[in-house]
Amino acid sequence: MDSSVCQAYEDEIQALEEEIRLLTEKYEDIQQESTFFSDEEILKSLKSFQRETQGETRGHESPSDLKAQLESLETDLSFLMKFTGFQFTSHSKKTVEKTRNRTVQKHRLSGKCHSLSFQLEFQLLETEDKEKVSTVVTDLSIIMESREDSDVSKFVSRTEEHGNLLAFFRSLSTYAEWYEHRRRTFLHFK
User: Where along the sequence do coiled-coil regions lie (predicted)?
Assistant: First the structure.
């Protein structure tokens, strides 16, 4: 082979490697900045996707299969919301620091549990040692509707200190459910 031909191939390989690197970075940026969208935005995106993929479904799932999957996921989500009482209204995630074996992500989450609104802000520290991955919640901040109940504010303070999200969601679910029962009972007697 001629050296100029080899050089042309090497230049093309380098250009393709650079393009792959740029696309990988773009993909990671998109994955890091996730948010929940309204039903209207999801439907618009789905319709746009269907228009783009008409005729390009060879070897891929058909739009009707994707629509069935989406409907199944929406049914599952609806069931979980009714079962737990949680309805998440927004979520955002941003990567603050990323190294070979350590990742720090900042999350913001807001929603309602029955009739009680809440907002969470926390950092998720993920470390990887050989074959073990550990995840720790740090800098937890919980904002809830102002309630006169001092036990709730004590609970929120303890949860923020310990960074135990699972305990927070379990306790909030039970408290919010009984809060609704108490509220309806008192309304009945007024």
Answer: 6-33
Instruction: Convert the pLDDT of each residue in 9-64 to its tens digit.
Output: 888 888 888 888 888 877 776 655 544 455 666 666 767 766 666 655 445 567 78
**Which residue has 């029962």 as its token pair?**
181
Q: How far apart are CA 145 and CA 176, in angstroms?
A: 12
Q: Where are the alpha helices (DSSP H) in the chain?
A: 3-32, 39-53, 63-84, 150-162, 165-189
Task: Provide the 10 A C-beta neighbour count for residue 159.
Answer: 20
Based on C-alpha coordinates, what's the Rg of the chain? Answer: 24
**CA 70, 73, 78 angle in degrees (round to 5)?**
125
pLDDT digit string, tens, across residues 64-97: 888 888 888 888 888 888 888 888 888 899 988 8
Q: How far from chain centre, in Å, is Cα 185?
A: 36
Q: What is the pTM of this model?
A: 0.56
**Contact status, residue 118 vs residue 143, Cβ threshold 8 Å:** yes
Domain boundaries, the chain: 1-53, 85-189
Q: What angle do CA 75, 81, 86 make, to 5 degrees?
A: 155
